Amino acid sequence: MAPTRATVVLLASIAVASGAVGEETEARVSIDVKEASVDSIVSLLVELGGRQVVFDQGLDCPLTLKLHEVPWLTVLETTLRACGLGYEEEGGILWVASTARLREDAEGRRRLEETRPAPGPGLAVYRLSYARAERMAPLLQRFVAPEGAVTVDPRTNTLVIRY
Predict the structure, then answer these.
(1) How buried is residue 75: exposed, middle or buried, by Cβ count under 10 Å (0-12/13-18/19+)?
(2) Which end of the chain is more exposed for a tag (fewer CB within 10 A), N or C?
(3) DSSP 3-state of 45
(4) Residue 31 three-state SS
(5) pLDDT, tens digit, for every residue of 85-119?
(6) Which residues in the chain are classed under CATH 3.55.50.30?
(7) What are phi and psi of 58, to 5 degrees?
């Protein structure tokens, strides 16, 4: 008979209570389950780690685990690897999906970054009150990149700096 989610919760709760949790040590987990669903196990582990979890669709993998005093993150990664799964973490939220799906998503983000246009040249405009723009322009030109330029609008005593 396969254990229910309640059995998995009970076993994991006992394991966490007996594990050493300190300020300088990572929580250690002892877990003994038979044919438990991967989402039940992962849900408990991320709760122990103070994280939240989102599962991709169609993750069904019954697992049998018998681990004693193992860091919770190692248990999480081993559990996921046993089912061909992986995770990405952002802001304390784990997204659990197949490794193929995670790879596709990373590739899509990389392609999107490549298609974004490079930022254009910067432009700054400074209207001077206590100095002459014509006198300041040669001084500032030394600090501007070679492809940049400092131009002067003498009518309004303004410096236009393209960098």
Answers:
(1) buried
(2) N
(3) helix
(4) strand
(5) 999 999 889 999 999 999 999 999 898 888 877 66
(6) 5-115
(7) 70, 30
Alpha carbon distance 3, 37 (integer Å): 9
5-115 — its CATH code?
A: 3.55.50.30
Helix (H, G, I), strand (E, B) or coil at 27: coil
Span 66-76, pLDDT tens digits? 999 999 899 99
Token pair listed for 136: 């300041």
Backbone dihedral region for residue 84 (phi beyond 0: left; psi -120 to 50: alpha; all else: beta): left
3-state secondary structure of 151: strand
The reply to whether the predicted model has a pTM over 0.70 is no
CA distances (Å), origin 83, targets 97, 108, 123: 10, 24, 53
User: Cβ neighbours of residue 8 under 8 Å, at least 6 residues apart?
Assistant: 33, 36, 40, 41, 44
Which among 101, 95, 51, 105 has a CA at the least distance from the CA of 73? Answer: 51
Q: Which amino acid is at 99?
A: T
- CA distance linking residue 86 with residue 84, whole number of Å: 7
Residues 76 and 45: their CA atoms lie apart, in Å, by 6
